[in-house]
């Protein structure tokens, strides 16, 4: 499978990969399913070496708490028992949503393109965080002039659009990155995320529906009805997670899934962001259990469905700061936590090296 040029589909993309030697390229949705069935695992020898090293470091065993598990997990994926994070990448994918016609957001859809301009000019929150933590940041606007279809009436994306968005995400990952943050921007996309969560995990539509950018109580009731309508309209595919992503998601959510899958094949660990990012990622896990083993939850957002989604995925968030911004901001804030975990694990002296008596 060789890559196709997507420049004609996403003319604003400036960071497409151009190499022909990328492993596991895909052309069809069957190829995507095959890539999901053939996932690399962490290296067991490296995991064992990292664990042995951790037990030898100048600290009481377990004293660095979760940092120790993060370091071992990261080393296992990188195949290096003394790995460090030196090349993090933040990618923001943007898409527009037909479902905004139903009045489900506090902001108008033109804000998506305006915020893309803001990301490109360096003025958004995530720009500051990426710069602060030494991350490369890329922005991919996905066909903003063609919003997805209103998912209460039709599949959000046809198969070609879905595949193109998955590919955009796949192609956006820098093979030289050693940690990935996938962020998004899309007015209306908390409604898409709620619809996906409701489809994957059931319950009442209202359980998964929150105020997003800040809609009022009347808007929230409309939004819950829209989420329920989405499940009714697509009742025939709710047990097919990739179809759930296509029919209820959006281009930026599909791109996030494509990027997370690519990162897995490159053995690049991923920090998940908020509710939208998690809903997109959850479609991979629902299709293939274990597909998110290379992912860690950067934070739990204030959107009420997020804490429920992370519990379903058995992922404990690193941060809980009441954020609900998206654009990768919560995950970007977790970059220095992962960097700190690896700095300790890979830089500390052992008891023997430091001449410290063990317990
Ligand atoms: O990441 C989150 O959990 C999150 C929660 C609420 C809102 N957002 C952001 O707000 C936008 C979607 O909100 P809305 O109300 O238009 O659906 C979108 O650009 C997201 O990045 C993000
Ligand atoms: C201004 C604004 C910035 C955002 N960043 C991510 N989602 C957003 C939504 C709005 C409305």
Automatic annotation (TrEMBL):
Catalyses which reaction(s): 5,6-dimethylbenzimidazole + nicotinate beta-D-ribonucleotide = alpha-ribazole 5'-phosphate + nicotinate + H(+)
Broad enzyme group: transferase
GO molecular-function terms, A-Z: nicotinate-nucleotide-dimethylbenzimidazole phosphoribosyltransferase activity
Enzyme Commission identifier(s): 2.4.2.21
Keyword annotations of the record: Cobalamin biosynthesis, Glycosyltransferase, Transferase
Gene3D superfamilies: 1.10.1610.10, 3.40.50.10210
Active-site residues, as the UniProt record annotates them: 327 (proton acceptor)
Superkingdom of the organism of origin: Bacteria
One BP term from GO: cobalamin biosynthetic process
CDD domains, A to Z: DMB-PRT_CobT (cd02439)
NCBIfam families in the record: cobT_DBIPRT, PRK00105.1
Protein family (similarity comment): Belongs to the CobT family.
Protein name: Nicotinate-nucleotide--dimethylbenzimidazole phosphoribosyltransferase
Gene: cobT
């Amino acid at each position: 499978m060789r890559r196709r040029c997507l420049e004609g589909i996403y003319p604003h993309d400036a960071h497409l990969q151009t190499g022909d030697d990328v492993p596991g390229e895909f052309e069809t949705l069957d190829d995507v399913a095959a890539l999901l069935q053939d996932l690399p695992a962490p290296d067991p020898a490296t995991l064992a070496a990292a664990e042995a090293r951790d037990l030898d470091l100048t600290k009481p065993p377990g004293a660095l708490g979760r940092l120790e598990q993060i370091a071992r997990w990261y080393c296992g994926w990188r195949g290096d028992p003394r790995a460090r994070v030196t090349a993090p990448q933040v990618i923001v994918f943007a898409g527009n949503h037909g479902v905004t016609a139903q009045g489900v957001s506090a902001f108008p859809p033109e804000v998506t393109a305006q915020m893309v301009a803001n990301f490109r000019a360096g003025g958004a929150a995530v720009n500051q965080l990426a710069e602060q933590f030494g991350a490369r940041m890329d922005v991919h606007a996905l066909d903003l002039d063609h919003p997805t279809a209103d998912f209460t009436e039709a599949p959000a994306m046809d198969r070609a659009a879905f595949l193109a968005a998955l590919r955009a995400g796949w192609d956006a990952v820098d093979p030289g990155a050693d940690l990935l943050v996938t962020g998004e921007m899309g007015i209306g996309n908390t409604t898409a995320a709620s619809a996906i969560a409701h489809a994957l995990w059931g319950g009442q539509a209202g359980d998964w529906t929150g105020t997003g950018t800040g809609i009022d109580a009347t808007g929230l009731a409309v939004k819950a009805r829209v989420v329920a309508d989405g499940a009714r309209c697509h009742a025939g595919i709710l047990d097919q997670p990739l179809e759930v992503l296509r029919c209820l998601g959006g281009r930026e959510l599909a791109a996030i899934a494509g990027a997370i899958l690519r990162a897995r094949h490159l053995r690049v660990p991923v920090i998940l962001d908020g509710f939208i990012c998690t809903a997109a990622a959850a479609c991979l896990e629902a299709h293939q259990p274990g597909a998110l083993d290379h992912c860690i939850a950067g934070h739990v957002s204030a959107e009420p469905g997020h804490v429920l989604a992370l519990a379903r995925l058995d992922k404990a968030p690193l941060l809980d700061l009441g954020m609900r911004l998206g654009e990768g901001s919560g995950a970007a804030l977790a970059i220095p936590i992962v960097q700190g975990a690896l700095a300790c694990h890979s830089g500390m002296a052992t008891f023997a090296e430091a001449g410290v008596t063990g317990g």
